[in-house]
């Protein structure tokens, strides 16, 4: 918290947009499940779909959303894409939210 004599700094529009999109990403149960899994290990679309009992098309759609926000990244091995976490700050938010929900 700032001291009383420090000036309040308003958030610029780009920062507001990115923060709101990050929370939007974390507001969807499917995206939370995907991020939580990718926080544990790198996975292909088919591995995510199998592990989380989701359709591959659903996983691909959600990964595209997360990749556009730079929350996940991928590497190519032959014809397979393997996804992993690209933003540890967001994972910290996610883990803190999980701990809060569990009252840990």
TrEMBL record:
Keywords: DNA-binding, Transcription, Transcription regulation
Single GO molecular function: DNA binding
Gene3D superfamilies registered for this protein in UniProt: Winged helix-like DNA-binding domain superfamily/Winged helix DNA-binding domain
SMART domains found in the cross-reference section: HTH_ARSR
Pfam families on file: HTH_5
Domain HTH arsR-type stretches: 11-104
PROSITE patterns cross-referenced by the UniProt entry: HTH_ARSR_2
Protein name: Transcriptional regulator
């Amino acid at each position: 918290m700032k001291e009383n004599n420090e000036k309040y700094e308003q958030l610029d529009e780009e920062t507001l947009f990115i923060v709101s999109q990050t929370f939007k990403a974390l507001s969807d149960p499917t995206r939370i499940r995907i991020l939580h899994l990718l926080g544990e290990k790198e996975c292909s679309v088919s591995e995510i779909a199998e592990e989380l009992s989701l359709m591959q098309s659903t996983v691909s759609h959600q990964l595209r959303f997360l990749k556009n926000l730079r929350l996940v990244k991928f590497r190519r091995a032959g014809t397979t894409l393997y996804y992993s976490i690209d933003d540890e700050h967001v994972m910290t938010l996610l883990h803190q939210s999980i701990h809060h929900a569990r009252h840990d």
